[in-house]
Amino acid sequence: MTMLREIESVLAANDRLTSSHALWLYGNAPSEWLREAADEIRRKLHGERAFYNRNIHFEPTNKCVYACRFCAFARTADQGPEDGAWDHDLEEFDRILRAKQPGTITEVHITGGVHPDRGVEYGEALCRKVHEVHPTAHVKAFTAVEISFFARKSGLSLEEALRRLQAAGLGSLPGGGAEIFDPEVRRKIAGGKAPAHQWLEIHEVAHGLGLRSNATMLYGHVEEHRHRVDHMERLRDLQDRTNGFMAFIPLRYRNENNALSHLLEVSPEEDLRNYSVARLYLDNIPHLKAYWVMLGVELAARALEWGVDDLDGTVDDSTKIYSMAGAEDQHPAMTTARLESIISAKGRVAVERDSLYQAV
Ligand code: V47
Ligand code: SF4
User: Fold this and answer.
1) For residue 199, which ligand has an atom nearest its CA?
2) How many angstroms does the Cα of residue 178 sit away from the middle of ligand 1?
């Protein structure tokens, strides 16, 4: 039996693909086969529904103790506005939140640089502020890398730090900071920040406390297909134990203004193939998100046919991390009407979701 026939029979029996299957798919599967296979799994999971939400991002600071080589966003603590550094205080956050009418957003996504002076108390203050101004909004905040630093700074265990944030109103964790788990690749692109086992431990502890989370994968730089498979295998294994991940979010490396700018970006076809392999391999993470801000609207819409069921949200010009790294849209914002029309143009039913994927 050829490998493709073997994989087809595994899928037909609703069985699980092995890592060798996934690796083979990356290198060998015909693109149209991949698209159709992933689309079928997507349909079994979600029917014709495709999701979006109404959110804003808040990036409190881009001052960061780390210097990930792919990052165009971070500045050092001693840099100032003339170098493109910012450090918003709570009053500024209050102003940003009050600029939104009550009830017009369901989620505030908070993530930023790892500021050397800020511990868990700062995270708590941000969560409380959201609830003060938008009592019904969900706070999805702080990557595992930020949580790891908060805990260390405040002299707390990871669990204590997460409990404190949860008590202050944290609702779920975003998927950032995962990058690529393989230690060798991670050392090359993100040396120094929370290692893979700690990222995974933080999500495991969060899931144990009833906090759901997402998982990202930064691909298309120095990694090979085997590293992507290894990354997804670690997520799949953790999800088997906790069932706390809601969405997997592949993020294509964007190559402007960073220390890896000599690398070319992968092609749109590679992006689409990557979504499909992820949909087929990660059988236990329900949602697959094409983050339109990173991918561009046109490609995110195409991704809906390659296994994707979620486009993220309105965002409303509230994030800089991608525009600084070369994303086409310098002021990313979408109306719900536009998100709905992108989804309906693909023959799908647009569903506004909340942060836990319940229809609004
Ligand atoms: O971890 C940084 C990535 C992530 C670049 O959970 C880059 O719903 C590409 O995690 N090229 C942070 N990627 C953003 C993130 C996220 C975004 C949207 C939704 C959710 C969610 C999570 O951004 C970082 C890193 O992997 N990133 N620089 C770059 N040059
Ligand atoms: Fe800091 Fe995050 Fe940029 Fe790394 S990716 S340098 S942790 S802001």
Assistant:
1) 1
2) 9
Cα of 324 vs centre of ligand 1, distance in Å, is 12
- Tally of CA atoms within 13 A in the half-sphere of 227 that contains its CB: 18
pTM of the model: 0.97
DSSP string covering 232-244: HHHHHHHHHHH--
pLDDT digits (tens, 9 = 90+) for 272-327: 999 999 999 999 999 999 999 999 999 999 999 999 999 999 998 778 877 888 78
pLDDT digits (tens, 9 = 90+) for 44-68: 999 999 999 999 999 999 999 999 9
**What CATH class has 3-352?**
alpha beta
| Ligand 2 lining (C-beta closer than 6 Å) | 64, 66-68, 71, 73-74, 113-114, 145, 193
Strands 170-173, 55-58: pairing kind: unpaired
Q: How are the residues of the chain apportioned to helix, strand and coil, as percentages rounded to the nearest 5?
A: 45, 15, 40
Q: Which amino acid is at 279?
A: R
* pLDDT band per the 50, 70, 90 thresholds, residue 1: low
CB of 57 sitting under 6 A from ligand 1: no
| Across 174-194, average pLDDT | 96
Q: What is the Cα–Cα distance from 259 to 70, expressed in whole angstroms?
A: 6
CA distances to 74, 155, 187, 195 from 65, rounded to whole Å, are 9, 18, 16, 15
Phi, psi dihedral angles at 352 (to 5 degrees): -75, 130
Atom of ligand 2 nearest to the CA of 112: 8
